[in-house]
Amino acid sequence: MTMKKYLCVVRSPSGKCNPPSPSQMEEMYAKFNAWKDKFESNIFDMGSKLGDSGKVVSQSKTVDGPFVEVKEIIGGYMIIEAESMQKAIEVVKESPGVGSPESSVEIREMIQPPME
Amino acid sequence: MKNLVENFFRHEYGHLVAVLTQKVGFTHIQDVEDAVQNALTAALETWTHNGSPEKPHAWLFKVATNNLLGTLRQNNRRAEILEENVQNITASKEQDIESVLSREFKDGILNWLFFCCHPSIATESQLVFALKTLCGFNIKEIANRLFISEANVYKRYSRARKYLQKKSEDFPQLTKYDYNNRLQAVNKVLYLIFTEGYLSSHLKYSIRTEMCEDALRLSTILINNKIGVDPQSFALKALFHLHFARLPARTNDNNELLLLEKQDRKLWDKDHIRQGLYWLSQASTGNNFSRYHAEAGIAIEHCLAPSFEQTNWDKIVKCYELLEKTNPTALHRLNKAVALGQWQGSDAGLSELKSQDIPNWLINSYQYQAVISDLNRRSGNHNQANDSADLAIKLAPTPAIKHSLKLRLNPHS
After folding, report:
1. Does the structure show a pLDDT above 50 at B375?
2. What is the ipTM of this complex?
3. Which of A25, B77, B111, B188 is paired with B357 by a 20 to 30 Å CA distance?
4. Helices (H) and strands (E) in chain A, counts
C-alpha cells in the first residue's frame, strides 16, 4: 500500500498557561517515548516547535504576525506517514501533544504529484 | 539514553535549585526556580524530539545556568561569579563532568537541607519548603500529598521563603555549630517526608512510595557526609529501610491496606531488611537513645519474626515503653496496648488502655475503636465488641476502610 504524507499542525491557546510540574514532565516524557515507539514507522518528521512571533509577508507589505487577536496560535508541526487519513487520525489521537484539552491538531494530506 | 532514571525531572529540579541558589544568593531564588523550570521544559521538548543527550545532568546544568545568566545580567557581580563557576565546571574533562556535577549536587543538597531547617522556621514550613525546593513537587502536588489545602501549603512555603530571604541576601556559610545544632531538625524533616508517604492513604502505589524514596535518598546523602555520622541519623536510615522492606506487602490488589497479620511475609524485601539491620547496629553507639532507635527497634522485631504469632511481643512492648519516654503520644500507647494484647492476652491490652488518659481525638478514631472491639471480642465481651465495631465502621473515612473493618471485626456474628 502506498503511504501518504500528512502535515499535522498543532494549535494551542495563545498566552501563557501553567507550566507542568517536574512530575508531570516525567509523565509526559514517558508517554511521548511510548508513543514514538508505537508509531515509529508512521513518524516521518518529528517537526518542531515554532517561535511565538513571526512576520507575515505579502507583495505589498510585511507585517508582524501571527495576528495577536487570534486566540489560538500554531505552536508546532510534524509530518506523519500513513496509508489513510483514518490511520493518521489514529496516530495523532494517541500523541501526547493532543493530551492537553486546549490544544488541537489539524491534519492535512500533503498532495504529491502523480508518479509516471 | 531514552530511559532516564525514575523521578529524574523531580530530583534534577531539587539538585539544580539547591546548587544554583547557593551560587547566586538566596535573594534570587525565584529567578533560579524559573531558570530551572525553563531548562526542564526545554529538555522535555528537545529530548522527546532528538533523544536525550549522553550527559543529561551536564546538559540541564548548562541550560539552566545560561537561563539564569540571562536574567541576572543586570546584576553584574552575581553573573560574573556564576559565569566563572560554570566555566570551572564545564572545563573539567568531558568524561568527568557528570561526576563533578554529581559531587556538587550532593554537597549542594545537603547544605540546602541544613539551610532550610533554620531554627526560627516552624517544622511544618521546613517540611513544605523542602518538598517544594528539594523534591521538586509543586504547590498543588504537596497539598495533595499532605492532605492540606493549597492555600495552606502556599502560606507555609512563603513564610519560610520570606524569612530566609530576609536573613540572607547571600547564601550563608553555615558554621560547624549550625550544622550540629540543626542536625536534629534535618532528621525530623526527613522523618516527616518519609512518614507522610508511608502512612498516606493515596490509592496510587507510586504516590505513596515516592516520598519514602526521596527521604531514603536524602538520608543516604546525609550519612555519607561527616555531618551525618551520628547515631540518630543512622537509626533513622535503619527505620526507613525496615519500613520500606514491608511496603510491597502492605496493600492487596485492590490497594486496600492490609493488617500486619494478613501480610504475605514472603513479599518483604530482604535487602532492605539487611540494610536496616546494618544501620541499626551502627546506630547502637553513644548514649543518645532517640525515638528513631525505638521505632526501628519495633520495626526490626516485626521484620525478623517468622510469623505474626511468633513475634517477640515482649520486646516490642519494651520498645514502646522506651518510646513513651522520648515521645509520649497517645497513638504509641494504643500501639503498646495492641502489643500487650498479643503478648499477655487481650485483658492485659484492655487494662493498659483503661489505665491511661486517652484524648478525645483518638477515642473518636476508627483505629482506636477497632482495637477496643478486637480486644473485647477476644476477652469474650461481645456486647462491647459489637458496639465498638459499629462505631469504628461509622468513623472510617473511606468505603474501602469500612469494608475491610467489616470483614475484620465481624460484628454481630
Report:
1. yes
2. 0.80
3. B188
4. 2, 6
| Listed residue (A2, A30, A7) closest to A80, CA to CA | A7
Least confident of B16-30, B50-64, B198-212: B198-212
Of A25, A28, A32, A36, which to mutate for an interface test with B (greatest number of B Cβ within 10 Å)?
Answer: A25
User: Which of A27-41, A48-62, B293-307, B348-362 tops mean pLDDT?
Assistant: B293-307
- Among A16, A17, A21, A44, most B C-beta atoms within 10 A, so best to mutate, is A21
For residue A83, being part of any structural domain is answered with yes
From B123's Cα to the closest Cα of chain A, the distance in A is: 24
CA distance B307 to B285: 30
Mean pLDDT of B51-56: 86
Measured N-to-C along each axis, helices B97-116 and B150-167 cross at an angle, to the nearest 10 degrees, of 100
Residue A18 lies in a domain: no
DSSP assignment of B362-390: HHTSHHHHHHHHHHHHHTT-HHHHHHHHH
Q: Which pLDDT tens digit goes with each residue over B21-34?
A: 888 888 888 899 99
> For B209-220, what is each residue's pLDDT tens digit?
888 999 999 999
Shortest distance between the Cα of B95 and any Cα of chain A, in A, equals 26
Which residue of chain B is at minimal alpha-carbon distance from A21? B138
Query: A97 in a domain, yes or no?
Result: yes
Q: Give mean pLDDT, residues A18-39.
A: 87
Which structural domain range is residue A59 located in?
4-13+25-110
Task: Name the helix (H) or strand (E) containing B129.
Answer: helix B123-133
Would you call B10 and A22 a contact, using CB atoms and an 8 Å cutoff? yes
A40 in contact with B at a CB cutoff of 8 Å? no
Specify the DSSP class assigned to residue A50: -
pTM exceeds 0.80, yes or no: no
Q: What is the CATH number of the domain that holds A76?
A: 3.30.70.1060
Split into its structural domains, chain A has a count of 1
Residues of B in contact with A46 (CB under 8 A): 49-50
